[in-house]
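Mods, move this if it's the wrong board.
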Amino acid sequence: MENLIHDEIGLIHLAASIIALASGTWVLLLKKGSNRHKQVGYVYVGSMVVLIVTAFSIYRLFGGFGIFHIAAVVSAVTLLGGMIPVITKRPKNWLGMHFAFMYWSVMGLYAAFVSETLTRVPETPFFGIVGIATFAVMLLANLLYKKYSKRWQATFDKTPV
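Not the wrong board. Structure tokens:
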């Protein structure tokens, strides 16, 4: 455990990531627009905010701003891109935008999880494995998105606002 958690910030970051992974997966599986979807969605958003904020407090790997901080910025953008349409109910296709941004937010989290897990394997090339893991997860996510997006859009059209 000492290599996994270095301090209190690391512990909070790990706890938030576990909550975000579980709630993000759950919210993708729930019926869209239901009260449970909204409740679990807000758990996801809250845990992601904690995860992103704590990411900017961790500098052990590079001793300064690094690639994972850039990933945290991208994560914040996808999270905001998913929540602003919910709050403003704009643009006209706000529900589709919400889903798309939140889907990619969760997929980015999966990519981070796989990358983090694989970098723990001894004697693996760090940047190589991060790149391969991120590419593989995002490729699979993109294939699923393309395959199911019309079905999902039909669900949004029937979802009460």
